Every structure is written in C-alpha cells, then in structure tokens.
Amino acid sequence: MTQLDTLLFGQRLRHLRRQRGLTLDGLGARVGKPAPFLSLVENGRREPRLSLIEDLAAALGVGVTDLLSAEAPSRRASLEITLQRAQDEPLYRQLGLPWLKPSASVPDNVLEHVVALFETLRLRSQSQPATPEAARRANVELRAEMRERANYFPDIEHAAGSALAAVGYGGSGAVAERMLTDLVAHFGFDLHRVQDLPLSARAVTDLRHRRIYIHQRNALPTRAARSVVLQTLGHFALGHTDPQSFGEFLRQQVEANYFAGAVLAPEGPAVALLARARAQRDLSVEDLKQVFYISYEMAAHRLTNLVTRHLDLGVHFLRADEDGVIWKAYENNGMPFPTDADGVIEGQRACRAWGTRRAFGSHDRFAEHAQYTETPAGEFWCVTQVEVERREAITVGSSAKEARWFRGHRTTNRAESRCPDGECCRRPPDGPASRWRGQAWPLARADGHILATFPAESFTGVDLSEVYDFLDRQTPPDPGH
To answer: What is the pLDDT of residues 135-153, one digit of tens each?
Structure first.
C-alpha cells in the first residue's frame, strides 16, 4: 500500500460512519477497537493497518477503495484538512496564534476565511523574495559574507580540485578542452550545441536524459562556452536544489561562478603564478587571463578569490557600463562605493573621476587603464579593462599603499573624486548648477533610468554634472561677461 494520507482517511471514515448513524462506540464494537483509538484514526493521528481498513470497510458496508479515495468527502472536510495542515506549517506557527480546532461549533464560513487568509499569506511569502526590495537585501547580505570570507570559499575550492583530480588534471597550467569534456561525462551528462536555445538561457539541462544544451559556436565562442558549461556543472557538483528564495538563488549563482573559476584557474597553479608575480611586483589580471585561457572578468574574480587569502592583499572589484552604472562590486579594502540607504551598490553610478569610467575615454580602449584616485576614504589605485563589444568595464584595484605589488603601479594617471558627499557626481558643482539649473532638460536613456537613481533632482537616472559640463562646452562665451 502506498503512503496513507491519514488526515484524508480519517475524514472519509468519519463521514461514512456518520452517514450510517454510528457512534465511535458502535463502530468500535463491530471492528473490535475501542472508541478512543478510532477517534485518533479519525483525527489523522493514528495510521490504521491494512487489516483494520478492511474491517472498517466491511463494518460500514463499503469497498476498501471508498475509504482510500483521494477525494475529500465534503467541502467542510476539505477545509478542516487544509486548516490542520496549515497550522502544522512553520509560517503559520510564526504567527503565534493558539491552535484552532475545527469543531462543529466553528461555522464553515469562518474556516473559509482562515484558510483563504493563510493561503494568501503563503503566496505573499513565496513571492516576497522576488521583489526588488528582498533581492536588494539578499545582495547586501551575501556581499557582507563574501567580505568576511575575503571572497574565498574553501569548500568550493575543494570541490573543484576533486573534480579536476577525477579527470586526471596534472596540477599545473591551463585545463585542456579534453578535460572539460571528461568533466561533463564525470557528472553524468552529454553536451549538445544547438541553434534554438531560448534567448533568456545561457544553458539548459535536461535532467531526465542527462543532456546539457548550449548555444552553437557562432553564438557562443569557445572561451565563453567553457565558463557556461562549468557554471552549469557547478550547480550539480555543489548539490544545489531548486532555490526557495532570491537569496538562495543569488548564492547558488555566486557559488556556481566560483566553481567555474576554480576549475579553469585551479588554486594551486594560480596561487603559484600570483606569488611569483608579487615577488616581482607584477601582479596582473591579464596574466591570469592568458595563462588559464579565461575571460578578463573571470580572471579578475579569481584574483580577488586568492590574493587576500594567500597574499594578504586587500582588493576591490567593479563591473560597470559606459554610463558608470554598477552591475557587480566587491571590496575588502575600504573603497568607498556609492550605496543607497540599504547599503545596495548595484544600480548606483560610479564616480566619473574613477578609472572605471575614465577608461572609456582612454586613447587605447583595448589596453588596460591604470589610475590613482584620491577619495574621501583615502587614495586608491586601480586597473581597468574595457570590454568594447559589451560596452562594460572590469576594474580591480587596491589601496595606493599596496599598489606597488601590481603591474601598472607606476602610472602617472591621477584623479580626485569627492563622491559621495562633495561636489562631484551626486551633487553637481555649485558653479555649473547655478548656471544651468532650471535651464536644462535632458531626456534619460531607458537603461540608465531603470537603475541609476542620482543625482536626486528632477531627472532621475541622469548625471547632471555631465549634462552641465556638456552645456558649458557648447555655449559660446557671453561678450558681456
């Protein structure tokens, strides 16, 4: 017999007993069981043996299938079952309400209200993690944990190392393409490139047939494909299940990305490369990218994973678009990223004096742009690579004091940022502001309008400092002044 739904069985037993005008004592006399025992069965607190189910069916003059039907015998019975199950849920218990027994004195409409209200509460609790507010809170909490860990996850490093050992990785140099194919097979999958993968997905995994589908090479180059495949495998290597909240979803994404980086740039050889580079005062994201055949962004992530733990260097990481809107950020060195009142960085706009934004104006946008920036929190150094096709910039930096360990520390590029509180980006300088406030009407770009929310003036998503500077440059001198 399959697992018995004791609540449903009890309701059907009570319904049939009452239909036949039997008391618990009367039914107990027919099946040789005391009334208190049968009461427990009817309340779903005692699971009957198959022999008793057969005796009860015979005593009530019905077939066993009638007692074991999966349908509640009445709307009232369905409400009582739903209410009892609801009160057993942690979400209901968090309300601190006393147990509500659905006795005969409780009207049906009261049960309808209670059940409907709790169902609404459950749906709201399930949808809450997907709201922007909950997503932002989850992001802040995860970044704080990453900072506490120095962005280093030893369990994921171990999982990546074990996976590589299983396919014969020798412990030095880049991971060969053959080993990636072997890793897919090691986790029990086949890899298929297809033309019609959904645009919203980077990969789709068929768990039934153990297939991983990715885009064809014309849409997904080899270097990107390596990362996508390993991010997919990371979910299975780390034992991820369907996320139940946005926080869990976000954590899984971070962990899967970390796993991919730890496989493609294994900890042992990567740390050895970084240690040699530090000894020569030549730490570089570019070297990690070239040696391990990974993207600049993954190399930047990998550097932040390892240099604090193994070389005791504080760093910061930033990915932003050409408008300066921040998409990813991490720091453990005091870099003063802009935040909103909740501590959220993503969606804020990086200062236009930072290297992340000045790199777009560099004479050679394909070369790394190194820069020192004086900020209210101290002086910082950074190096930025512009991903021209994606129109995004990837930045890794340190305090000015520790810049000597990095390639590009001899740069003469310098800037001053007074963000977030001085006259700079959030608050346009008084001179241009007095000339142009009320006399300028910029039309915000849609992407900037969605994410960027400063300056806090009339034109949400527009950098008014840049607008006023532009207008100053375009305006001919006033001969009367």
So the answer is: 778 888 899 999 999 999 9
